[in-house]
Amino acid sequence: MKQILTNLLVAYTLLCASFCLAYEEQTHRGLSQAAVEASVLKGDPTVLDSLGLEPFDAPNQFRNYRNDPGSIRELVQDGSAFEDEPGIRVRHHFYNPLTGRPANSCGTEYGSTSPDWPLEDRGQIDGVGPTQHQDDSFADTRQFFLDALTKPTKDERDTKWGRTFQGLGQVIHHLQDMTQPQHVRNDMHFAYSEQTLPCVGGKSLYEHYTNLDEPGDRIRTNLPYIGYDAVYGSGDPPYLQFPTQVLAHSGWARHRRLYQPRLCFCGDQL
Ligand SMILES: [Zn+2]
User: What's the rounded Cα separation, in Å, for the pair 135 and 141?
Assistant: First the structure.
């Protein structure tokens, strides 16, 4: 499991090493598709075969938690899209590497940090409802994986395989967010009014732009997902041993870019 996640994280890091755009649903799906297709799940047929699974492209192999069937590729994509639903769940999708804190609104923090929420490596997050209770973390996904291998009935195992691949998508969603500058500083960008959530900006122009896919404005479909040098080279293997470090250092890498001469226009600020 750790190997598969690490491969997905590495694949994603390779794809999005220096300039990665995305972050509305379809762009998360596009990024996740590129990542899973670059991973061992597709690149090494012996991985799925050794787990007793059909080949990577087999249709409708398992179901996501909405009971929709999908291939492994589609289930990972589903997970990356579901991670932003319901919308207020994104309160857990921020991390300021300068402070180690999540984003805040007028000084009040409303969520966990992006590394803490998707990993749950510092304890279970047991609030009430889907925006406070975490059921799709890396820790949960490891349990889904174990259950997929050990449950007594095929139905149970198939259900857990679906959650395993969906869960991988939910976790890599956070690595995708960590490459968006607004997610690594106190710059929340929800589609809520100032009255509902004071001190929070409106929708992200950056995410809106990168999601454009209209005649004459095919931005999303032309995003360069591949072809970048790796952020982490052979000199940095320790970071790839710990998912927390991968997420936190991705946040740092993006944060540093904000201070380079070519700044990012994200929302209402440069
Ligand atoms: Zn997000």
Answer: 9
